[in-house]
Amino acid sequence: MQTSEELKQIVKEKYSEIAEQSREENASSCCGAGCGCSTIDEAVMAEDYTKLKGYVADADLGLGCGLPTEYAQIKEGHVVVDLGSGAGNDAFVARSVTGSTGKVIGIDFTEKMISKARANTEKLGYNNVEFRYGDIENIPVNEDVADVVVSNCVLNLVPDKAKAFAETFRILKPGGHFSVSDIVLRGQLPEALRASAEMYAGCVSGAIQQDDYLRIVKEAGFTAIKVQKEKKITVPDEILSVYLDTRNLEKYKSGEVGIYSITVYAEKPAVGTDKKACC
Q: Which of 5, 107, 144, 212 has the highest CB neighbour number within 10 Å of its CB?
């Protein structure tokens, strides 16, 4: 069984490859990297950002599984932290709402993604968008800084999700909130899929049951938890057949098991209501 650090290294290597490709190159391969089409094509997951204000084509690598910024209730002047910011796609969309009086901080642990995001920032001439190298299990942001945290198909890749959400809670201001798009499971995913490192980097094997995901959010101290949007992911037969025999393929397709993209909203209680803070 792979350790947390080994899994992180797999993800980092995959996304380092992706950082050096265009969105078109990503779309013609699998999950954004040349992995022999043995994982889910990014187009199965990705949402269309092109109509959103602040969209920057050079920052869109087609890696998300939702539109968290669309549901994040960002306001002018807000401080927004984007976890797993990649080339800056969600960060730039968020900046279009916060305006010049707000601030956006992107966090990523792939050096090549940070370099790409910073280059995009320089082209845009933004002085209130920055990208920091860091691990989501130990976010390089002080406590009580963010009004809003967003993340797009990244937290499911983090081995210690409880720690990631505890860190999200820490950096949010009292009364702040997050909107996160992620991949979750309903029912038991066949072991052949879970065991694949390529599927892990493709956002599936790192996913957990939806009920467990929401429980972790609650245990981190968040309230007002709700699923803002959900979409079942349709995995093509030619991909599933790599991992499943005919009997298990039909069982999977029957609806007993499902892979879903969900966008989750939750709030950090305001001062005076947070038992974790007062104790």
A: 107
